[in-house]
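To assess whether the prediction recovers the assembly geometry, we first specified each molecular entity separately, as shown.
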Amino acid sequence: MSLLEVDKINTYYGEAHALFDVSLHVEQHEVVALLGRNGAGKSTTLNTVMGVLAPKSGAIRFAGAAVASLPPYEIAQRGLQLVPEERRIIGGLTVEENIVLATLTAEKPWPLERAYEMFPRLAERKRNRGRELSGGEQQMLAIARALVREPKMILLDEPFEGLAPIIVQDLIGVCRKTAEAGQTIVIVEQNVEAALGLAHRCYVLNNGHVVFEGRPDALRKDTDFMHRHLGVEA
Amino acid sequence: MNWSLLWAQLFNGLTLGALLVLVAMGLTIIFGALGVINFAHGAFYMVGAYAGYVAYAATHSFVLAVIAGAAALLLVGIVIERGLIRYYYRRPHEDQILATFGLGIILVEAVRAWFGGISQRLPVPTWGTGAVNLGFLYYPTYRIEVLGIVAVTLVVLYLVLYRTRLGLIVRAGIEDQLMVNVLGINVNRTFLVVFGLGSMAAGFAGVINAPIVTVVPDMGELVLVQSFVVIVIGGVGSFWGALIGGLIAGEIISLTAIVQPAYSEVMLFAAMAIVLILRPQGLFGVQGRQ
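The predicted structure of the complete assembly is given in tokenized form:
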């Protein structure tokens, strides 16, 4: 049985139908990329899985239990952790307080030192408030908050968006290292190459429908498809 | 210029401000963390004073009266959060205002029906009678003690907010409730505690101020309005905003009264208008909070 099974979910924003019978599955230790153009439904999918949005129909099973429509905190306590697109660092809290906040309900939280080892930059900034951090530091903190909970699965929503290339390289390194250590990851990214470089398997969404599922090399070969759905030139 | 009058009004402003800080603190943290505008908060303050009055009549102990007022409002807060407020978290502010405003009216009229409209007195405790010679001013002992009581209460509140897990969750929740939820924290449970403690602070303030003011069913109305001004001046959800805003408001009201008491409220609202123009998020507020 897959760690995460999403079965024909339909999610709406008010009247607007955003996801149409989206199904996907993620195995343990797997890195899965969700790709697609803006508005394709990638973030909506992650938010629905996390319980931030409730699907109108369909089933979501995580670690063997039905979680569709549970509140986010219950889903987080079961070991699923979203790193949201806007990062959502608590600006008035220090870096350390942000991390401690994340550990409060984790079963086996990391000691803080382990997070600082992974992100030495955060150790230097631990007394700074979240709102004083640069975009790259905020993203490190957002990822650190997820990792310290030692979740069964991490959902990364556009982790590289708007960051300088050198920081993106750093973060890709962190993601790779984490994945190699066995962390299950679902990544949504506009940076198709970065995402395909990390992923074992990928899905492409278009207008709320899954239009591709397969291995990154299979996707790369279909240059016409890449161009049509991802805007990537061959 | 009469200097002792000025000193007396400065101190009166401080005690009035201290009271407003206590009431506004509950209001601002409830609004900040829960997103609920509680128009019944003034009524909670009033019920606290009556609970203290009843307890004092039964026991003749001021300390027991304070404990009774605080405990009664903790209980009232918990019951009302579970029975009413929690159904309004996801509803528009207008609905919250209508519901809590209505609740406030019910509480005020229930107290009026039970105790009548006449004013009750809670005497100054024996350890608070007389006046203290400050050198430049004789000032009532109890009012100075109130300043001390409020200061200690604020230190305790500060430690809870800045040194405990609960405080960490509350401060985070004031900024971004959804993210706190996504990090595995059941905010509903925290809301209950916050609403209970905020209500308790109002009840506590009601009892300790009962010997200074008269205990009547309407006593909370003015305090509620002034507390709203305090949190607008200080910034919604801010500990320091409620503290500094409360003291500023107390002094404005008190010092204006030297010239013309009728202008006190006008000056208070003028100060609020100036803050809103120059710094719409309040002195200590964060711009663009969620």
